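User: Could you check the structure of this?
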Amino acid sequence: MKLFRTAFGAALLVACLDHAAMATTQNVIFNGTVTATCTLVVATNGTMTVSPDLQSLSSHNSGGSAGTVTLTTTGGVSLSVDPVTTTTAPAADSTATTWTPTYSTSGAHTIAETGAATALTIPGADLVSVHLAGTKGGSNRFASGNYQATVTLRCE
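Assistant: Sure, the predicted structure tokens are below.
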């Protein structure tokens, strides 16, 4: 009987070796979500200079320069500038100044200079140029001294 079991087992083994093993597969599913996002990194701060008539203090005046910001987005966001709320001026400047922030972009999105919100619908990277102009009305003029204003660039 022992010889029979051994012979039967050997025959079964040989029969199994002749047949390929049964293949099996499974699918592994990967999910991911990318939410609409935007990153802003200040590259340079801007410089304002005064106009010859002393009624404009602006990054557009001769010798002035825009602030620059790098922007990277997935799209589905809006780019804008907030009204200026933080300023410092010398004590001798006691008259009102109207501050007007603007921006433009180059890169994945081309936006001409504006102060309005702009939808960024596609993903990409841009260089944003941020400008600021302060103006005096009537016979008012900018006084001698240091001025500073903060422009908030918003991407949401």
